[in-house]
Amino acid sequence: MVGDSALERGVTPIELAAMRPPRSEWRQAAARFASNRMATVGIAFLFVVALVAILAPLVARHDPNEQDLLARLKPPTAQHWFGTDELGRDVFARTVYGARYSLFIGIAGSMGGLLVGVSIGLLSGFFGGWVDQLTMRLIDIMLSFPGVLMAILIVSVLGPGLINIIVALTIWFTPTIARIMRGTVLVLKQQDFVEAARSSGAGNLRLMVRHLLPNALSPIIVYGTLSVATAILVAAGLSFLGLGVQPPTPEWGAMIGASRQYIREAPNATFFPGLAIFLTVLSLNFIGDALRDALDPRLNVWTASS
Amino acid sequence: MGEYLVKRLLLAIPTVIGVVTLVFFAIHLAPGDPVALMIPPDLPAGIREEREAAIRARYGFDKPLHVQYLTYLGNIARLDLGRSLRTNARIIDELPQRFVNTLQLGILAMMVSTTLGVTLGVISAVKRGTWIDNATMFGALFGVSIPNFWFGLLLMLGVGLYWGVLPPSGFNGSILTWEGFRHAILPAITLGTGSAAILARFARSSVLDVIVQDYVRTARAKGLAERVVVLRHVLKNALIPIITLLGLQFGAVLSGAVVTETVFAWPGVGRYLITGINGRDFPVVQGTVIFIAIGFVLINLVTDLLYAYIDPRVRFR
Fold first, then answer.
1. Considering the domain boundaries, does residue A10 fall inside one?
2. Per-residue pLDDT tens for A84-141?
3. Is the pLDDT of residue A306 over 50?
4. Residues paired with residue A90 on neighbouring β-strands, in sequence order
5. What is the dihedral of CA A29, A31, A34, A36, to 10 degrees?
6. Which one of A152, A242, A277 has the shortest CB-CB distance to B150?
7. Which pLDDT tens digit goes with each residue over A166-201?
8. Hey, is the C-beta of A148 within 8 angstroms of any chain B C-beta?
9. Do B293 and A159 touch (CB under 8 A)?
10. CB-defined contacts A:B, below 8 A
11. Which of B2, B177, B268, B309 could form a disulfide with B102 if both were Cys (CB 3.0 to 4.6 A apart)?
12. Would you give the end-to-end CA distance of chain B in angstroms?
């Protein structure tokens, strides 16, 4: 390894300085990210959604669960901006409160998957051996369940509910993230800086946390952002099917699932929560794409998730 | 090729066993008594205990877990997935017709997504940097961001109910009949959209990888028409990685069918699964999940074989 260093191959220090990556790649990436207009729009919209979720009681003039059976299935009016649903509840208030559930589930589910997946991938890739082999076989098997089938299986076993859906998303994301992380670690492990750190006395834990993890962050950040988008979509889909968050909780997917039989009479009760999901997920995808372009344009994280 | 086929088939067996094992233990080791899950919640108390004991004996839950597991594996090897708790029908008899329905929808959806996705992706790459490219990639982002159940409901409402040119839901069992085909159009578009978007992005980057190769420059240099260069030299090579993704997407489409089938009342495996979950019909859930997963393993196997057929280098790895 030492014989391979640039200096011994007859490179002058000036050339070496030119070869070295410019200072603070993160700052450069941040500049690239900031110049992306789509990302700016995405962040602005998400900021509004988050604000609305936090300030829901101030934004909505009605209680999300207050029924008015005399005003069922009404189109949008000045009183009810998004109209009312099949129980006469204010769709605007429910959509506003729904932001809390969807954002929380999306973030918690994908962060859970990131935490578990990154840990498994890091350990597995670093130590190798039979533990690695076993883990990878298990991951292969988990990934042989197409698409969301694994998540459906888990919620059907655990039963519906907010926490269970987060658990299901965590388990569902873990294999993909573990595999990405392991692949990155396997490449990094071969590089000189790891060898250098080891020979200067760094232990396994220090190597993993201080040297490998920071260098493997780019794909994880990008995939993490996109997985929040996926998590929101999947969670809404499961709730729509009646397997996730249960009515009368104003979760967007559950709202659509409950109001869809009345779609002819009151399309507004289905339309607005769906639009909220769509725009939130679109914003996250704008941001994820911009992050990918900024951090590593060669990454193709989209196909990794399918 | 024959040797490769045998090797791949043998490699699929441990995966199938793994899938069965995972589903079995997911259901049996999960918190909560599986027998309690199997009892319809609307039964009166006296009948409840009686039914519980009967189920324990019938499914062998009084036996140790490893005995149960081996019995279950043996049953699967004989294509026996057990019986529905609700209807007492043999699950393996219920699945094929439903699977054919799902497959018809899936194939049509894949035709939508492949035609749309690959065509737009290739055009986008060839015209990279132009407004066509930008518009396509923007559209692709929309396609992956839209919740497909909501998109399906909007199509159903707009095209099926208000406009009334296509039937809003249901299916008669064959897309080869005119009525059946008309019923399949909206579900196929709903199911194919997300996949089309992913394929468009992938096809674009795949073509961009090839278009800078030396042999493409050579083809241009010897004076071939741009159309010939793109079709013969670029596309042929760019298609190879796309085929792998097509196999994966087909699996995603099959599982996405769970949602689409629910929206459009399509009598497929997805709806069977959801009916099983809602009815706490746990043998149906277990059987259907295993059935779909094994189907996906087989699709991947076919994709790999196709891949090896097109690109002989793969066989020698």
1. no
2. 888 889 899 999 999 999 999 999 999 999 999 999 999 999 998 999 999 999 998 9
3. no
4. A84
5. -70
6. A277
7. 999 999 999 999 999 999 899 888 888 888 888 888
8. yes
9. no
10. 139
11. B268
12. 13
Helix boundaries (H) for B265-314? 269-278, 282-310
Test A277 with B285 for CB contact under 8 angstroms: no
Considering its fold, how many domains does chain A have in total? 1
Test the A interface: residue of B103, B145, B253 with most A CBs within 10 Å: B145
Does the beta carbon of A134 lie under 8 angstroms from any beta carbon of chain B?
Answer: no
What CATH number should be reported for the domain holding residue A33? 1.10.3720.10
Q: Which of A153, A226, A227 to mutate to test the interface with B (most CBs of B within 10 A)?
A: A153
Distance (Å) from the C-alpha of residue B169 to the closest C-alpha of chain A?
Answer: 12
Per residue in B175-225, pLDDT (tens digit) is: 889 999 999 999 999 999 999 999 999 999 899 888 888 888 898 899 888
Cβ-contact B188, B124 below 8 angstroms: no
On whether the CB atoms of residues A140 and B269 are closer than 8 A, the answer is no
Confirm or reject contact between B252 and chain A (CB < 8 A). Answer: yes
CA–CA min distance A178, chain B (Å): 18
CB-based contact (8 Å) between A247 and chain B?
Answer: no
- Tens of pLDDT along A220-243? 888 888 999 999 999 999 999 999
B292 pLDDT higher than 50: yes
What is the number of residues in chain A?
306
Residue A59, number of CB atoms within 10 A of its CB: 15
Distance of CA A109 to the CA centre of its chain: 8
B255 in contact with A, Cβ within 8 Å? yes
The beta-carbon neighbor of A157 closest among B27, B253, B258 is B27
Distance CA B164, CA B317 (A): 54
Count Cβ atoms below 10 Å from residue B53 Cβ, excluding itself. 12
Nearest residue, CB atoms, A153 vs list B18, B23, B297: B23
Q: What are A84's strand-pairing partners? A: A90
Return the amino acid letter for B266: W
CA dist A161 and B238 (Å) reads 44
Check if the interface score ipTM surpasses 0.85: yes
Residue among B65, B77, B76, B80 nearest B30 (CA):
B65
What DSSP string describes B248-276? HHHHHHHHHHHHHHHHHT--SHHHHHHHH
Q: Is some CB atom of chain A closer than 8 A to the CB atom of B200?
A: no
Residue B251 touches chain A, beta carbons under 8 Å: yes
DSSP state letter for A191: S
Tokens of A264: 């002819």
B157 touches chain A (CB under 8 A): yes
B277, B284, B299: best to mutate for the A interface, most A CBs within 10 A: B277
How many CA atoms are closer than 13 Å to the CA of A123, on its beta-carbon side?
A: 10
Residue A6 lies in a domain: no
CA dist., res. B267 & res. B264, Å (int): 9
pTM of the model as a whole: 0.87
Residue B310 contacts by C-beta under 8 Å, 6 or more apart in sequence? B239, B240, B243
Contact A97, A85 (CB under 8 A): no
Residue A14 domain flag: no
Question: What is the nearest CA distance from A15 to chain B, expressed in angstroms?
Answer: 29
Tokens of B257: 């069918």
Which domains are seen in chain B, by residue range?
A: 91-316 (1.10.3720.10)
Question: Containing domain of residue A222, as a range?
Answer: 24-299
